[in-house]
Specification:
Length: about 600
Amino acid sequence: MDEKKDAFRLFRIVLRLWKKLRDRFADALEITEERKAAIYIDLAKSTTLKDIVYWLQIFFSAGIATLGLVQNSPAVIIGAMLISPLMGPILSSGLALATGDLILGVRALASLTISTIGAVSFAVILVAFLPFKEVTNEIFNRTSPNTLDLGIALFSGAIGSVAICKEVKGVVTSIPGVAIAVALMPPLCVVGFGIGLALSFDFTQGLGVAGGGGLLYLTNLVAITFTAMVVFILLRIDTPMVREKVREWRETDGESLWWKDAIGRVPSLAHAREIRSISLRLLMILLPLLLIFIPLSQSYSKLKSDIQKKQAENKIQQSARKIWEDAFSTQSNGLERDLDELRVNIKDGKLDVYLRVIDTDPYTQEERNKYLEELAKLLDRREDSINLQLIEIPTSPGETQKSQPETKAPPPTLAEIQAQYLESLKNALTGLDLPPPAKMLDFGINTSPYRTPEFNLAYMSEREMDIDGQNVVSTGIKNRLNMPNAQIVFERIPAEKIEIRFLNNRAEFAGNGEEKPLDGAGKAMRNHTGLNLEISLVPTPNREELLEERKKAVRDYLQTNWSVAENRLSFTDAAGEDAVNSIRLLMVDQK
């Protein structure tokens, strides 16, 4: 009996403290009963589906955000954030859960659903008309939300609710900051971009982008709704006087009466005009919050792992630099070696260390082995777990003599800069293997301030590289170049023999389209200087002049149409009973 009295007394104390906290919170915000009623009615009005201005804000902010995302422009995206038309319906959802108002909850849910579909659809339409569909950094950054984004949304939802309730003293200035922090529209437009990408270009990548943007949007929506609910409960916004004023307003509002009548037609909803159980309302919002927390925590774990890996790589990089500066930066002639680049990468327990050094006195093999030994000792690793790539750019001694400033070398030409850049790419890709039977021919990279880098890889093979092989190679290239957002474009150069046909007993090509094999070979040779062409022609007995005429026809066609030099062509006799006239592209170093 005494235990029951103690428990009841404790409950009364907790209840008294809760009421005192609510009263002090409301007093601190200086919110009167009239102000509460005004907040309630204003938020209810924000869920209307008939406000043309609201829909203009939805579509205009979606348009601004979508174009800002594809242009990779943070300033434009912030402009879309400031419009923030979705804040009203989301705060209304929190108010509906706080007060158990079923009519307001249904109106808010309908407004959010239609607004979401409208914004995403408009973004998909815009993406469909774009001539390019690059996943920019601004898009990529919104595809992997984690628990930190959830925390931002929780804090932003709380201050947004407080700012809506507070009437004076400059709190209005916090609304733009809340809108920017939460950023409801850009994630929705990322969803639209992903769907547009999936429908028109890359289905798998598009679904991944859309899924990541959708998760971020749901995170913001659920978190703001939850914190708004908590704030409105603390304010005790549904006092009897407030309820009476809201009831009077609804009796004169046509849209509210329509929703009331629509809900009344559903028997299960007609008996639940108000959800009085606070525990049920909390469960309705906490359940999706917990479900969202699962993928967010996984993303956070990955982010934490990536950060730890980066920190470890930075520490190793410092150690590698220190060893080089202490013992390997001075040449035998007393001049300094210039460390142009130092990169490290940890993958599957292996450590890749890449050094690019400008010097006049090349490193000996003993120096390389000594550097690797000291690095392994300092890092407490086995030498065979470290892959050391030491690239040296030799210079003449005169270029490094500090005592002769008047002989300073002229600035490099554009061609020299391009050649050095391609050489650095070649060094970075040394040892990159393609899935058999593909062999790398050459590569290039296109960069632009408005687009992500595009890496073009040409390979020779008798068949197309499959998707899995392309994904593996793409990942390897991005890691080696340290360009995670680069677009990898593959070009297959056929390695098989291709038949060419001549008119019977003549040197002219048969048919209007029969020169296409030579066009394909000529185009490939024009674009890739590392290609030669082997032409196998069937001998013509007793008519050696016909064979020579056909050789000349091939040479003239390639020279006239594709500027292929004669020294890149080789002629052989096609042997065997089934021999046909054919051509085959060969890499310069191919035997």
